[in-house]
Amino acid sequence: MSIIHSIILGIVQGLTEFLPVSSSGHLNVFPWLFGWEQMPESFDVALHLGTLLAIAIFFFKDWISLLVGGYKKLIKKEDSTEGRMFWYLVAATIPAGILSLVLDKISEMIVGDDLNVQMAVIALALIVMGIILYIVDKKAKSEVKYQDITLKQSILVGISQAIAAAFPGVSRSGITMTVARMLKIDRESAAKFSFMLAAPITLAAVVVGIADFTFDLSFVLGVLSSFLVGLFVIKFLLEYLRKGSFKIFAIYRIIFGLLIFACIFFK
Questions:
Q1: Are the CB atoms for 181 and 155 separated by under 8 Å?
Q2: Burial, 175: exposed, middle or buried (Cβ in 10 Å; 0-12, 13-18, 19+)?
Q3: Three-class HEC string of 231-254
Q4: pLDDT number for residue 214
Q5: What is the DSSP string of 171-199?
Q6: Mean pLDDT of 68-80
Q7: Rounded to the nearest 5°, which phi and psi values hold at 38?
Q8: What is the pLDDT of residue 144?
Q9: What is the pTM of this model?
Q10: Among candidates 26, 28, 29, 31, which has minimal Cα distance to 5?
């Protein structure tokens, strides 16, 4: 893959991983739309390494507090918000990981290798989830803060990740934030919890795929651009959601989905 394409795809990954617009959808559509060579799966995972590092750096103090709190809760039986949230994240990630493997096999059978079919599925997922996100966010109340999220809410939000992992276009952050809003979690807290949930499952994918990484200049620049843009987007979204809504992202999803359908037709 060329260096320019790597940097562009890294920027796309950084921009779309945390916004509820589907990074996997964009990473699939861009090479198809512009006639680039198909992106290797290992490079897709590498770009996720960049955004994983962004989560790790941006929430560094949070992760330290979570790890210490989780340890104290397990070993010393000391109760704390951080300890509780650590084990909630663990409880939410395990079933999501198992379900992802099952749904991924089902997705492969449904979608197949036809690029046009894949693009149509992505477009449909973008539009449908955009409509659902808009309706849910508009009607949902904001009653639950990050520190007040329950075990049941954690597991429900966590499991929803599996659907996004299996079907590009759904958006991991999009579906987790939508389910969180459905459960009356406020927008900023829904975004933060979505970011924290992304780390374990992304780390697992990186560990599994690291043997296939090609550590050349394209790899380094792709990961670096993904990391830097990801840091900016996390900060932007958390600040934006203190007063803004998900409406703009829902509209973007619908427009982008319709654009993909138009490209399929004209191609």
A1: no
A2: buried
A3: HHHHHHHHHHCCCCCCHHHHHHHH
A4: 87
A5: -HHHHHHHHHHHTTB-HHHHHHHHHHHHH
A6: 92
A7: -65, 135
A8: 97
A9: 0.93
A10: 31
Number of H helices, E strands in the chain: 11, 0
Give the CA dihedral 102, 104, 110, 115, nearest 10 degrees.
-170
Task: For residue 216, give the 3-state DSSP assignment.
Answer: coil
Place of tokens 């290797």: 40
Cα 217 from chain centroid (whole Å): 25
3-class secondary-structure state, position 144: strand
Nearest to 191 by CA among 207, 206, 178: 178
C-alpha–C-alpha distance, residues 106 and 83, integer Å: 36
**Least confident window among 32-36, 49-53, 179-183:** 32-36
The neighbouring-strand residues paired with 77 are none
Q: pLDDT of 117-165, one tens digit each? A: 899 999 999 999 999 999 999 999 999 999 999 999 999 999 999 888 8
3-state secondary structure 93-104: HHHHHHHHHHHH
